[in-house]
Amino acid sequence: MADSVDVNKGLPANPEKATLDGKNKFLGMFVFLAGETTMFATFFGTYLGLRSGTGSGPEAADLFQLPLVFIMTMLLLTSSLTSVLATFAMKKNQFAKLKLWMWITFLLGATFLGLEIYEFVEYYEHGLGYTTSAFASSFYTLVGLHGAHVLFGLAWILLLLLRNRKAGITLTNAPKFYAFSLYWHFIDLVWVFIFTVVYLMGIGG
Amino acid sequence: MVSEATNTRKKSVLWDWLTTVDHKKIAILYLIAGTLFFVKAGLMAVLFRIQLIAPEMEFISGQTFNELVTMHGTIMLFLAATPLIFAFANFAIPLQIGARDVAFPFVNALGFWLFLSGGILLSISWFFGGAPDAGWTSYVPLASREFGGLGIDFYVLGLQISGFGTLISGINFIVTIINMRAPGMTMMRLPLFCWTMLVTSMLIVFAFTPLAAGLALLMLDRIFDAQFFIPGEGGNVVLWQHIFWIFGHPEVYILVMPAFGIISEVVPAFSKKRLFGYTSMVFAVLIIGFLSFMVWLHHMFTVGVGPIANSVFAIATMTIAVPTGIKIFNWLFTMWGGKIKFTTAMHFGASFVPTFVLGGVTGVMLAMAPVDHLYHDTYFVVAHFHYIIVGGIVLGLLAGLFYWYPKMFGHKLNETLGIIFFWIFYIGFHLTFFVQHILGLIGMPRRVYTYLEGQGMDTMNFISSVGAFLMSVAIIILVINIIYSALKAERITEKDPWDARTLEWATSTPVAEYNFAQTPQVRSLDPVFYEKIHGNGEMKPAEPLDEIHMPNGSILPFIMGVGMFIAGFGFISFHMDLFISPYVIIAIGGITFFGAMAARSLQNDHGYHIDKETVESMEKELS
């Protein structure tokens, strides 16, 4: 059966897909992300439909500051890169490197999340409460949902790193690290769309 | 019930069922829960049919009527049909593809417990100031905080939780069907039920996520005063309709496709012929699945989206009739010239075809956007979708029940009682819903709790109510049949009591917990039938007899279900006067849920092995 892989001669080239369990996690994660895509698409659609509905509250162009958003984007894109470097290390069976890159990913993600919270507080002080207008509700919901995903991803990688801190790369934990990195790429990709649709179109469009 | 000989680990019965990750037991849990919800929602229908039996009845109030129709629709779709489909899917998919279990047994159990906690959360609304009353579609602004009562909070949170369970089960089925097939079971040898469940699961992934988003928006509007659907500060009420129907139309196909699949198993088995046009069936399923996302606007023809949009969606809707027609003719040609054996399952299978055609024809009528203005929100629509849902889905599910019952429970259901049940149910169904076409055409609106005398509606409403009573009599006969057969029916030990064709009939009855001692080698479409003709009647093994790896049971899915229930109740309690703050309840529920999730990810659970000797002795005992 595919469950039993001979690891006497070291890990196989793709440890994340060497077992049936790993293959299942790999495919399952992709299907899950397909579902997430439609869910985010719904929130994007809602935002696009309601973004001019500012009522008596402030508008997008009054609030958004590109420098901050640019820094956030760079942080998250870099964290995506570091998670790729981590999976490269995993395929070469370099556990210390895997951990190092994943910790850097974690720190970049956490900084991003901190800036997002700062951003929300800032907007709130400029009069954009959650209930102020349809624009406000749909903005906070879309971007906040992305933030919640980042938070979940941070908790996930933290648990993985703490639990496997001494485990080395095995056929059991390789698919888990890999599934996390897929998830993290997805979060990153969603942010690229948020950057374009929410911030660039908010200021320029 | 599942015999002791099929289990290697001894546990108390209750603990076993709470912690099981065995797909066959989860199937039975789904079957029981789905049946209970089905009976409950059916009784609600009887209550409002009593109210409508004569003009100006005062049996129940208008408010109660609204609550009953809302709960009838919501329960039937989300908490009765869906779990009953999942019952058969859970049971049949791993057996039909020659797998030992689903891809993620833990997630499978979690899906069930989330579905159940969501369903119970929705159901307790009756005790907290009334059930949801805005229809199963919960259109805003009727369902917004200003006009809708507390019941709608239960609707939003209950469906959110049970929908999450449905979603993860759907992911599980996709991965199972793609990754877990036995050697030789290529995609084009998959039994059609697996194909339909694969497409259904894809639809779940792409349709239940917009629903989750929509329900979240409605919840945020209602509980946290967001502005999505409130026009005053820039919100838009039509947005809800779009989101709801982007989910809602595929939902119909999510429910009816597995019924197509069951019929495609039952009809060849009892016609003693292979399914006519297997390949075209597969492509028809794929095309229907694709088109189901292209037609949501036909629920909104009268909203005023414009003639161009209406025309495009009208034509897209009519296109669906083509692949569906292909399927209908394939079933007919399967029966044509076959040695048909009219068992109860085949009664349901064969009657499905013409009944479903009636529902399809009215569907094409409704797809004509200009005339739809006449039918919209009348009993014509009610009649149409009940011909699809009862005449399609329920007949399919009942066929599946009688067909798979011996494999699931080790004895057949009584055939005489079964056929009596069939006829009473079938006649009752047509009495109830056929006249509703005409009621709709002469102008009776749906969801209105009474009508005036002398408008030509009295007799037909009376007939319709009598039909509803007949259907409930039929369901009572089914219950009697189940109890009678459990006590009296002959135990079945043979593998293949129906002389059927697909791989699930190669397992022992009752099915051992590991399904197949040796993974079978599949050599053809309809592998069991192929071995009966070209082999010695037994499946050839694809691997030597060896120890078998099994997943451990776990109580965590149950705990996560409880956690979600508590958290959901916490969100609802924002508008209740409770002695305890909603934040506390949400925190308790959230910590329970995420705590159990973290516990699961921190524990090292590699499952266990059944050794070779135990497998050999179990195989001997079962054969």
From TrEMBL, chain A:
Topology in the lipid bilayer is annotated as: Multi-pass membrane protein
According to its UniProt record, where is this protein located?
Cell membrane
Q: What single Pfam family name could you report for this chain, choosing any that match?
A: COX3
Task: Provide the transmembrane region boundaries.
Answer: 26-48, 68-88, 100-118, 138-162, 182-202
What Gene3D superfamilies does the database record attribute to this sequence?
Cytochrome c oxidase, subunit III, four-helix bundle
For this entry, list what GO says about its biological process: aerobic electron transport chain
User: Which part of the chain is the Heme-copper oxidase subunit III family profile domain?
Assistant: 27-203
Q: Which GO terms describe its molecular function?
A: cytochrome-c oxidase activity
Q: Which PROSITE patterns does the UniProt entry name for this protein?
A: COX3
SUPFAM superfamilies assigned to the protein according to its UniProt record, in alphabetical order: Cytochrome c oxidase subunit III-like
Top-rank taxon, per record: Bacteria
Does the entry feature the keyword Transcription, yes or no? Answer: no
> What are the record keywords, sorted?
Cell membrane, Membrane, Transmembrane, Transmembrane helix
Is Kinase there in the keyword field? no
Q: Name one GO cellular component term.
A: plasma membrane
Say which family it is in. Answer: Belongs to the cytochrome c oxidase subunit 3 family.
This chain belongs to the protein called: Cytochrome (Ubi)quinol oxidase subunit III
TrEMBL record, chain B:
Source species, domain of life: Bacteria
Its GO biological process annotations read:
electron transport coupled proton transport; oxidative phosphorylation; respiratory electron transport chain
Name the Enzyme Commission number(s) assigned to this protein: 7.1.1.9
Protein's cellular compartments: Cell membrane
- Key word Heme present in the record? yes
Q: Which GO terms describe its cellular component?
A: plasma membrane
Q: Which UniProt keywords apply?
A: Cell membrane, Copper, Electron transport, Heme, Iron, Membrane, Metal-binding, Respiratory chain, Translocase, Transmembrane, Transmembrane helix, Transport
What catalytic reaction does the record list? 4 Fe(II)-[cytochrome c] + O2 + 8 H(+)(in) = 4 Fe(III)-[cytochrome c] + 2 H2O + 4 H(+)(out)
Identify the pathway. Energy metabolism; oxidative phosphorylation
Q: Which GO terms describe its molecular function?
A: cytochrome-c oxidase activity; heme binding; metal ion binding
UniProt xrefs under SUPFAM superfamilies: Cytochrome c oxidase subunit I-like
The UniProt entry, under Pfam families, shows: COX1 (PF00115)
Q: How does it sit in the membrane?
A: Multi-pass membrane protein
Annotated transmembrane regions: 27-50, 70-93, 105-128, 154-180, 192-219, 239-263, 275-296, 308-333, 345-369, 381-405, 417-442, 462-487, 555-574, 580-599
Cytochrome oxidase subunit I profile domain location: 9-523
InterPro entries given in the database record: Cyt_c_oxase-like_su1_dom (IPR023616), Cyt_c_oxase-like_su1_sf (IPR036927), Cyt_C_Oxase_1 (IPR000883), Cyt_c_Oxase_su1_BS (IPR023615), Cyt_c_oxidase_su1_bac (IPR014241)
Query: Could you tell me what this protein does?
Result: Cytochrome c oxidase is the component of the respiratory chain that catalyzes the reduction of oxygen to water. Subunits 1-3 form the functional core of the enzyme complex. CO I is the catalytic subunit of the enzyme. Electrons originating in cytochrome c are transferred via the copper A center of subunit 2 and heme A of subunit 1 to the bimetallic center formed by heme A3 and copper B.
Q: Give the record's family classification.
A: Belongs to the heme-copper respiratory oxidase family.
Q: What is this protein called?
A: Cytochrome c oxidase subunit 1
